[in-house]
Structures are given as C-alpha cells and as structure tokens.
C-alpha cells in the first residue's frame, strides 16, 4: 500500500489508517470549495469546510484513487458533480459528490506508481482538510530539458543576478483580510484595510511608471489562508513577492518600520512579531526551524535579504523626508509562514505600528499611505537596478 500519513483533527496525534478524525455530533455544514495547487515538489488539494467535522480517508485500486469522506456536511450547489482536472502526470482528476445526504465525498484519481507518498491532515481557522501528494523523483533530464533553477554561486548570489535578468512580474500580498482583521488600533483602524489600500497604491505606481505586471493576492476584503499566498506567487511565476503588514506591540510607545526575509531567528522580539502574523503561539515557532533551515539553503535567501534591505532603506528615507520621529528598526530574518514556499525573492514589510497612537493617526491619512507606497516602490526600483551590477 502507498505510504500515507495523517493527523487527528483534535490534538494532532499521529496514528495509522484507515483513518477517522472524530468530533462530537454537530449540525450539518457546507463544503464550500475544493481547490488544488501544484508545487514543483508536490500537489496540495484542500477541502474547505469552515467548521471542525469528522472525516475519513482511504485508498482504492483498479483504478488507483484516494477518497476523503466528510460527515455531517453538504456540498455547495455549484460543486455538485464537479470534476477538477489537474495538470500533472501523477494526478488525473478530482471528483466531488454528495455521497449521502449527510456525507460529502472527494475522490482523487491518480497513479500510485508515480507517487512516493501522500499526507492527509486538518488545518484550523477556518477548518479545512488538506491532502498533499508527493511524486517519485523524476529521471535525470535529457539535454533538451530546460535548465534547472540557478544554484548559489561563491558570492552567494544567483546566476540570475550575475546575468542581470530583469524583474517583470511582481506579486503584492496585502496581509490578513476577511474574517482575519490583523491588528486593530485604538480607534478601530484595521490592519487588513490599511495594507490593502497601500498595496493598491503601490500597484498603480509600479504599473504606470515602469510597466511591471503586478498581481495582488487579494483585491478585496477576503480571507486567504497563509499557505495559499506564496502558492499564488508561484503559480503566477512572479519574479518578486512582497507581503505588506502593519506591526503591533503591547508597549504603545514602540514605533517604527521593519522588513523581514525568511529565516529562523533566535530573537524573541522577531518571533513575537512572527507569532502574531502566523496567528499562532510563540512556542509553535520552534517547530518551524527544521522546515525553514531546509528552505533557506536555496539560492533565494541572499536575494531576499537584498530586496528587504533595498525596501527598508528607501521606505525609511522617504518617510523621514515628510514626517518626524520615523524609526528604522532594520532588516531581520524571521519565521513567517506567509513567506514559506516562495520560489522567488520574498520579503515581509511591517510599514508602521498600529498600536502606536502617532503612527495609527498617520496610517489613517491618504498622504502617509501614499508615501509608504512610494517608499516601497523606490526600494523595488533600486533592487531591480542592482540586478545588473552583480
């Protein structure tokens, strides 16, 4: 049988299949979406349920398939009988049906011979069931196969920088959204609204002045799970990925601008910021260490540092020209889920502190937001110019 892993929906306890993730009897809820994303190393299928529900999964042969049954659930009408075709060699399609009046079944038709393993696990807030499918390693590429992504050179930079390859497509990620407001200032100003407005301003600057193609992970007040944001950037084949956020601190005197790239950090202040942005507790960040240490060994870590430095410098300088008491909090590595998985240089920018009365007041104004957008814009331009100087 295919190697498979699953996690109990409550308690995160590893156990063997056939699998049953149990919850108390509850009213029927709606399965409102089924979606898939293909990474270079695996494919993720997500069943959006919204509320914790009992589910099972199993595999069958002749033909090869894996199915997940979600109990006390009904399909959104638009999903009835829907088939999703997946564009990769090891997954054929995803079929969705109301198996019984109380059970939704999602069937994934695949090829076990081409699959190394798969994992089924729940994610909270909102509740969703995830199926990750990992293919077997491919045979060595023939000479006609396109070159693989650039490896780090001796100076730590990618071949892309040394060749002066340009930036054409940028994905901007306005943090939070929908049911997740982010941090909220004393006046009720919400992070999700501020950063969306700034991203829209930044998009306009980038598109009108330099003909970049700019894509936002969201253009309205909707919720997007953290892990989906870099997936969007990867699927769009972005050259840069920039996630925009507003900071908060229990000490209302704290203020300033800070930029991050993905890395593990021993700094408790950085980890506290990451814990808030990750919507998790600080103690869980330690579990990310192994994942992050593997990821940052690729060729993008140096580029991400340089992008963060360019944006931080330009943003701080821009704000200091027009406003007093602007504090430069620097550039640091941090364990941010919203940066994990990005296949391009990626940064997270904390544009100011909503918890600080002065900065909250400024963030209410169009002028301050526009200067933030322009500062980030200038940083991006400076970074792009530097690509030809490697």
Description of the molecule:
The protein is globular. The chain has helices at 159-162, 191-210, 226-235, 268-277, 282-285, 289-295, 300-322, 357-363, 366-386, and strands at 3-6, 19-21, 29-31, 33-38, 43-50, 55-60, 65-71, 73-75, 83-88, 91-100, 103-110, 115-123, 127-135, 169-174, 213-216, 240-247, 257-262, 328-334, 346-353. The chain has 390 residues and is of the alpha/beta class. A hairpin with a 4-residue loop joins strand 6 (55-60) and strand 7. It folds into 2 domains: 3-135, Immunoglobulin-like (Sandwich), CATH 2.60.40.3500; 159-389, Zn-dependent exopeptidases (Aminopeptidase), CATH 3.40.630. Helices cover 27% and strands 31% of the residues. The N and C termini lie far apart (50 Å). The protein is built from 9 helices and 19 strands. The strands form 4 sheets. Strands 2-6-7-11-10-9 form a 6-stranded antiparallel beta sheet, with no helix packed on it. A 6-stranded mixed beta sheet has the order 15-14-16-19-17-18, sandwiched between helices. A 5-stranded mixed beta sheet has the order 1-12-13-5-4, with helices on one face. Helix 2 (191-210) crosses helix 9 (366-386) and helix 7 packs across helix 9 (366-386).
């Amino acid at each position: 049988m295919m190697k498979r892993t699953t996690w109990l929906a409550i308690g995160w306890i590893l156990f063997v299949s056939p699998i049953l993730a149990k919850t108390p009897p509850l009213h029927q809820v709606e399965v409102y979406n089924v979606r898939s994303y293909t990474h270079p190393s695996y494919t993720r299928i997500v069943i959006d349920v919204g509320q914790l529900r009992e589910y099972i999964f199993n595999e069958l042969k002749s033909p090869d398939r894996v199915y997940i049954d979600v109990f006390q659930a009904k399909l959104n009408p638009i999903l009835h009988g829907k088939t999703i075709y997946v564009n990769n060699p090891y997954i054929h399609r995803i079929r969705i049906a109301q198996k019984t009046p109380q059970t939704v079944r999602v069937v994934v038709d695949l090829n076990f011979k081409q699959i190394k393993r798969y994992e089924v696990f729940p994610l909270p807030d909102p509740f969703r069931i995830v199926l990750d499918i990992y293919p077997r390693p491919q045979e060595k590429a023939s000479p006609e196969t396109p070159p693989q992504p650039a490896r780090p050179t001796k100076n730590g930079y990618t071949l892309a920088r040394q060749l002066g390859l340009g930036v054409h497509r940028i994905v901007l990620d306005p943090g939070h959204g929908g049911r997740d407001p982010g941090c909220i200032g004393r006046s009720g100003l919400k992070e999700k609204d501020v950063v969306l407005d700034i991203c829209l301003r930044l998009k306009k600057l980038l598109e009108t002045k330099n003909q970049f193609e700019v894509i936002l992970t969201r253009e309205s007040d909707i919720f997007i799970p953290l892990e989906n944001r870099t997936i969007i950037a990867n699927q769009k084949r972005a050259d840069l990925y920039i996630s925009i956020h507003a900071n908060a601190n229990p000490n209302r005197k704290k203020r300033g601008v800070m930029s991050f790239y993905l890395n593990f950090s021993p700094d408790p202040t950085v980890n506290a910021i990451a814990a808030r942005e990750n919507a998790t507790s600080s103690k869980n960040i330690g579990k990310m260490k192994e994942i992050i240490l593997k990821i940052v060994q690729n060729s993008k870590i140096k580029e991400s540092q340089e992008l963060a430095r360019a944006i931080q410098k330009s943003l701080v300088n821009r704000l200091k020209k027009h406003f007093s008491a602007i504090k430069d909090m620097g550039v640091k590595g941090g364990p941010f889920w919203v940066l994990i998985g990005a296949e391009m240089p990626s940064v997270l920018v904390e544009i100011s502190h909503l918890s600080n009365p002065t900065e909250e007041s400024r963030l209410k104004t169009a002028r301050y937001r526009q200067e933030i957008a322009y500062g980030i814009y200038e940083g991006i331009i400076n970074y792009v110019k530097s690509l030809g100087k490697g």
